[in-house]
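Following up on my earlier thread - several people asked me to post the actual chain instead of describing it. Fair enough. Here it is, all 372 residues.
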Amino acid sequence: MDWNVVYDARGHFEEPHTNRRIGCGTIEVGNYLHALKEPGILPAEFSDAGIDIVGPTGGFSAALFCEKEGFRPLFKAVNLANRYDLMIISTKGVSVTAARQLIDNICGDYDLPLFVLHDFDVAGFLILGTLQRDTRRYQFSSAIEVIDLGLRIDDIAGLEREPAAATRTSPSTLRGQLTENGASDAEINILLNERVELNAMASDALIDMIERKLKAYGLNKVLPDDDLLSEAYQAFHHSQQLRKKFEKIENELEASEIEIPKNLADRCQAEAHRRQLLQCASRRTAGAPRFLNLNQSRNSSRAVDRADGAAGSWRLAPRQAHCEDRALAGLARQCCLAREGPDLLPVARSGLVSSRFSRSREKARSSSHATC
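Reply from S.P.:
Thanks for posting it. Predicted structure:
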């Protein structure tokens, strides 16, 4: 039997330009890879035109793996990812299998190079090695070009050295491992006794080293194909025209005075309850009888009798899915977004079920498992 083990996220990866940041865990990486799609144009409406994209097409030049998560603020400060079109992947030490799967798919399928930034120590060279060869835990399906950004022996001159991490592994075994992971004899002689961390470099020196090596490789900015560029150019031009029209309308508009309802808070609360119940209707909850699953019947929306509180006169007609007061609907939507907890309301807590479901309601109230 093959086990599909799920590992928690031990690090993050972030796209350039979209600033989409996701955990490096089995589920997170799997969901991201499943969501990859080609660029699409979002036409201008009441918001500016944009590009709808998930993944490397037209936006990634390479991936950069860093063995430490703590450098993200520095990379953000110098805009490293956006200037070089880099997907930056960082973990806490040796790469997890989810990170290798991500690299295997992104770099392998889209023919992108992988740059690796690591400490000058035994673990750093192990990280470099596991990202370019098969191991017991992960076997690559693609051939990936891996470029070592360091630290190497030429990078550590003048930097503070620390004693090598204590280990029970014999020097001869360590020498063999370091050789397998790409260390030179001169580097091995140092690594058996000493180590140098990336943190030993000043921030500007670290960025200078990274950028110097990226340029030496010949990394260039990525441009989409001519068809997508033309379509985006037209969409952004249309967006600019609409913005000017909206600004003109805004300057000419005289806002009318309105009377604020005295029971606004109660009505907003009732509308928020109604929206949460409609969220129940949009999902299925198999095997959970203590929750009201409104998808079980075509006429299940009739289960909603009325909203509690001062808004008791608000009745939800069958299949009614909107509120006529658009301002109130907007307030209620923000209330729903601010709420915490599951989308499905327990029958015992909702207070929005008709007498038609009273039996299920009493059963839910007596259940010790009903939670909110």
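The chain has two domains: 11-35+60-217, 264-366. That should answer part of your original question.
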